[in-house]
Amino acid sequence: MTTDPSEYDKAMPIVTAHLAKVERAVSRTGISHGRQSYGTVRQALVEALRDERAQDVPPSVVDELARRISEDPDMLPF
User: How far is CA 73 from CA 14, 22, 54, 69, in A?
Assistant: First the structure.
């Protein structure tokens, strides 16, 4: 199955905007809740994602990001 290159061109701005929302939520949570308990960080991250209208991030990704923020926010990929 091949994908029309124009579909890629249409989708990329949407994907880029979504990733920027996720990055803002993760960064904000890392600054405000870094090294706090996993449960506290996860709840703050879920709220930050909701504020950014990026709440469709898969739960496993939210879990991993919350773990990283809780353990070592300086090692985040963003």
Answer: 27, 15, 20, 4
Classify the C-alpha dihedral 10-14-16-17 as positive or negative: positive
Spatial contact of 45 and 78, defined as CB atoms under 8 Å apart: no
* pLDDT tens track for 37-68: 999 999 999 999 999 999 999 999 999 999 99
| Beta carbons within 8 Å of 49's beta carbon, 6+ residues apart | 21, 22, 25, 55, 57, 62
User: Encoding tokens for residue 68?
Assistant: 């990283």
